[in-house]
Specification:
Protein name: Aminotransferase
CATH superfamily of the largest domain: Type I PLP-dependent aspartate aminotransferase-like (Major domain)
Enzyme class: transferase
Bound molecules: pyridoxal-5'-phosphate
Largest sheet: 7 strands, mixed
Organism: Deinococcus arboris
Strand order of the largest sheet: 2-8-7-6-5-3-4
Keywords: Aminotransferase, Pyridoxal phosphate, Transferase
Cofactor: pyridoxal 5'-phosphate
Order of helices and strands: HHEHHEHEHEHEHEEEHHHEHEEEH
Number of helices: 13
CATH topology of the largest domain: Aspartate Aminotransferase, domain 2
Helix content: 40-55%
Strand content: 5-15%
Radius of gyration: 21 Å
CATH class of the largest domain: Alpha Beta
Number of domains: 2
Distance between the termini: 54 Å
Length: 384
């Protein structure tokens, strides 16, 4: 009696899911699989943030909130955008969502019509093209290469603009590449958006995880054209709390709120109070971010050197906590390479298939140094 909708049927089955289920199956059989596939910090949520959540629960902050979030949090986000990013979004031009993912989802549904084209630099985070396609719009990948460190050439973007192009999605620092786009590139893209009347959705979830590169918000160059997405997940090790947020033109934010009001209502009240602590107890939060950032940088240096020594070449990513490794030494097809890495080296990685990155796999280095050492040892054995 149930027929799945055309929308549900149009969702691409994920290559990642197949690997994850195989990894779980091996674990059940008692095999010690190391997972390099997770997209979340290995650090615990900092204590000052947890304490605020406990306090919120105990003081009864457990009811519905305003759809766009509690006013204190929107004020804190508005202030954060100004002092950390140089972006001026009034509290009514800010909204709080259930994770960065929902902010993106609401944004695409608020801004895209069927047939609109959306430029997405590749390799991309898997959810962008899938969410865009769910709205009926058309994702248009803009390729970048490992040789250039996955840097985006604005001319390649411009070359793909058609009369149907509406939007550019940017993610810097990027998942899965770790690429950070320099200010002059962002400035050129902002000019392009300005000249061609395009909107920019800038996903800045990994803004704090940069290793020497300069992280700039493109919204500072094209404020009228940019919607900025961010969240608590990666910055404060809060993936499970589900807090994201967006800032942009007030009319766009209002449309996103309308969509949210008919779907999830508001982000978890308790999580909103936790995020408020993260955004207002500056000293404790800054200390946590800097400790995590330093740890990631040491891990990045380790894994990049190790992978390149093994011939699984990777550029040195300047941000986030992922590396893309070329696995053609193991197998030209990244799905087959992923399978061998899992079955023979007992390491779970994500094939580039879903990211628009053939011949490569993604490894997350949000793991302790000893684990990274062990992964490199196992990969060395596989290649020996
Ligand atoms: N954007 C990017 C690039 C991500 O990698 C992720 C999470 O993996 C998200 C957004 C969504 O994060 P959240 O957990 O806040 O929904």
């Amino acid at each position: 009696p149930f027929t799945l909708s055309a929308r549900a049927q149009s969702l691409k089955p994920s290559a990642t899911v197949a690997v994850t289920s195989r990894a779980l199956e091996l674990r059940r059989q008692g095999v010690d699989v190391i997972s390099m596939s997770v997209g979340e910090p290995d650090f615990d949520t900092p204590p000052h943030i947890k304490a605020a959540a406990i306090q919120a629960i105990e003081s009864g902050k457990t009811k519905y909130t305003a759809v766009n979030g509690i006013p204190e949090l929107r004020e804190a986000i508005s202030a954060k955008f100004e002092w950390e990013n140089g972006l001026r979004y009034a509290p009514n031009a800010v909204t709080v969502t259930s994770g960065g993912k929902q902010a993106l989802f609401n944004a695409f549904f608020a801004l895209l019509n069927p047939g609109d084209e959306v430029l997405i630099p590749a390799p991309y985070w898997v959810s962008y093209p899938e969410m865009v396609a769910l709205t009926g719009a058309v994702p248009v990948p803009v390729p970048t290469t490992a040789e250039s460190g996955f840097q985006l050439n604005p001319d390649d973007l411009a070359a793909r603009i058609t009369p149907r192009t509406r939007m550019i999605v940017l993610n810097s620092p990027g998942n899965p590449t770790g690429a950070v786009f320099p200010p002059e590139v962002l400035q050129s893209i902002a000019e392009l958006a300005w000249q061609r009347g395009l909107t920019i959705v800038s996903d800045e979830m990994y803004e704090h995880l940069v290793y020497g590169a300069q992280q700039v918000s493109i919204g500072t160059y094209a404020p009228e054209h940019t919607l900025t997405i961010n969240g608590a997940s990666k910055a404060y090790a809060m993936t499970g709390w589900r807090i994201g947020y967006a800032g942009g033109p007030a009319a766009v934010i209002a449309a996103m709120n309308a969509i949210q009001s008919q779907s999830t209502s508001n982000a978890s009240s308790v999580s909103q109070y936790a995020a408020l602590a993260a955004l207002t107890q500056h000293e404790a939060t800054a200390r946590f971010i800097e400790e995590a950032r330093r740890a990631y940088q040491v891990r990045r240096d380790h894994i990049v050197a190790g992978l390149n020594a093994l011939g699984l070449t990777t550029p040195t990513p300047q941000g986030a906590f992922y590396v893309m490794a070329d696995t053609s030494r193991i197998h030209p097809d990244e799905l087959e390479a992923t399978r061998r890495i899992l079955d023979e080296a007992r390491v779970a990685v994500v094939p580039g298939t879903d990211f628009g990155a053939p011949g490569q796999v993604r490894l997350s280095y949000a793991l302790g140094l000893e684990t990274i050492e062990e992964v490199l040892r196992r990969l060395g054995q596989l290649l020996a």
